[in-house]
Design brief:
Layout (H helix, E strand, L loop, with lengths): L8 E5 L4 H12 L1 H9 L1 H10 L3 E11 L2 E9 L10 H21 L3 E4 L2 H6 L5 H5 L3 E3 L2 H18 L8 E5 L4 H10 L5 E5 L3 H11 L4 E3 L2 H7 L2 E4 L8 E2 L8 E4 L6 E2 L8 E4 L2 E3 L7 H4 L6 E3 H11 L15 H13 L3 E2 L11
Length: about 350
């Protein structure tokens, strides 16, 4: 049983990679401990697999317009890059279940599944959460809505209109990608749908029926698109920044990042997408790795909105259930609470 006072919301996350794990160790135990981890990477990677889920000390009152949400961060210690066998998959899923048990002990009403925890949970109703009356949400609907608004803003900052651009959606058959396609439907000059499963892409195209929408390969998308939203669920980057054309604008929703490359992008602009800006900062930068304290991932932000608005719990969705209706309603509810899409700056973000 946790000794943390009853809270409204648990944010359930995991390190993005081993470097992020080292950063967390340094934050909690100091530089010498982090150096020891770096010297013994193989040992500590194995140790991570054995670590149970745990509640961090990052418990905060998140101040919104007219209300305050009491939130705690629970970490599931696994690295997406190391989930490669049925055994490691089962172990990671077990940590998601344990994270929900911790949330139950804390008295949480909502659990926001961040990063790969939502993929591991899938569309399954986790019994420990259901028994405690906890609302689980993947955050995919709000993440998609934030990404589309951020792309629109980035284009406008560059003197361009979304309606005039060819926009590629990588990962268009996934939950976030499909919702992004629906939100974009009928707006850009053309939408390129990219994913590995051609049959599922055909289903997405048929579902929306936009005539200026076609299936493309990743290579074709990089060669033809003016802008791109990357919403893949990959444990490793899927596109090299060196392949991006000048003036291409890329919204990278992936966690870990889906784009990798050099600091020189030759005029292309890559920014981290699916982010919200809160009315006030929260002290979780070491865990989120975001540039500003008032930035937060869409998956976590959706949990905040649902915790602040219990009347909207029906908008929560697990993997595969995000849709346009949920996305619009959650974005509007977020705005009422003072939460807006984080405005991307024009500075190029490196993904080294």
């Amino acid at each position: 049983m946790s000794n943390v006072p009853d809270i409204d919301l648990v944010l359930l996350g995991h390190p993005s990679d081993f470097a992020h794990f080292r950063t967390i160790v340094e934050h909690n135990d100091g530089a010498r401990a982090a150096e020891r981890v770096a010297r013994n990477e193989a040992t500590f990677r194995a140790f991570i697999n054995w670590m149970p889920a745990y509640a961090t000390q990052s418990v905060a009152g998140i101040e919104l317009n007219g209300t305050c949400v009491r939130a705690a961060l629970v970490i599931c210690p696994f690295l997406p890059q190391d989930i490669s066998t049925p055994r490691t998959l089962k172990a990671a899923y077990g940590k998601v279940i344990e994270g929900c048990r911790i949330a139950s002990d804390m008295g949480a009403k909502v659990v926001a599944l961040g990063g790969f925890t939502s993929i591991l949970a899938g569309s399954r109703r986790i019994e420990v959460a259901a028994e405690a009356g906890i609302t689980l949400t993947s955050g995919n609907a709000l993440t998609a809505a934030l990404a589309v608004e951020q792309l629109r803003t980035a284009l406008q900052t560059d003197g361009r209109a979304l309606e005039n651009e060819i926009v590629a959606v990588l990962g268009a058959s996934g939950d976030i990608g499909r919702t992004v396609v629906g939100l974009l439907d009928g707006i850009p000059r053309e939408i390129l749908l990219v994913a590995q499963n051609h049959d599922r892409l055909s289903e997405v195209r048929n579902a929306f029926g936009h005539l200026r929408m076609r299936i493309a390969t990743a290579k074709e998308a990089v060669a033809e698109a003016d802008a791109m939203i990357v919403a893949t669920s990959a444990s490793h980057p899927v596109i090299s920044a060196s392949d991006l054309r000048p003036k291409m604008i890329v919204c990278d929703v992936g966690y870990p990042n889906s784009i990798f490359g050099t600091t020189k992008l030759d005029g292309a602009y890559v920014f981290r997408g699916g982010l919200a800006q809160l009315p006030h900062p929260v002290d979780m930068a070491v865990y989120t790795q975001l540039d500003q304290g008032d930035q937060l991932f869409g998956c976590f932000t959706e949990g905040i909105v649902l915790a602040a608005r219990p009347d909207l719990h029906s908008l929560a969705s697990l993997q595969g259930a995000a849709d346009i209706n949920r996305a619009h309603k959650l974005l509007a509810a977020a705005a009422q609470l003072g939460i807006v899409p984080f405005r991307p700056s024009r500075a190029v973000h490196s993904h080294d």
